[in-house]
Amino acid sequence: MVLAGIGAGLAVIGAGLGIGKIGGSAMDAIARQPEAAGKIQTAMIIAAALIEGVALFAVVVALIAKA
């Protein structure tokens, strides 16, 4: 039971770190090439949404394994 909570926590921490890295890299890219900001922002939002989806799936699986 405790392992399910640890697994859910690790999934959330991993997602937070991944989205933070994507955001930081996108800001660096936009600072270097401002004319591509729209394309970079779109790609960043799509990648963040995919990471959130995987994290939510991992949390659900961890909580189902708890039962």
From TrEMBL:
The gene is atpE. Residues 4-64 form the V-ATPase proteolipid subunit C-like domain. Key component of the F(0) channel; it plays a direct role in translocation across the membrane. A homomeric c-ring of between 10-14 subunits forms the central stalk rotor element with the F(1) delta and epsilon subunits. It comes from Flavobacterium pygoscelis. It is a multi-pass membrane protein. This is ATP synthase subunit c. It comes from the Bacteria. It is found in: Cell membrane; Membrane. One of its GO terms (cellular component) is plasma membrane. Keywords: ATP synthesis, Cell membrane, CF(0), Hydrogen ion transport, Ion transport, Lipid-binding, Membrane, Transmembrane, Transmembrane helix, Transport. The keyword Repeat does not apply. The chain crosses the membrane at residues 42-65. CDD domains: ATP-synt_Fo_c (cd18121).
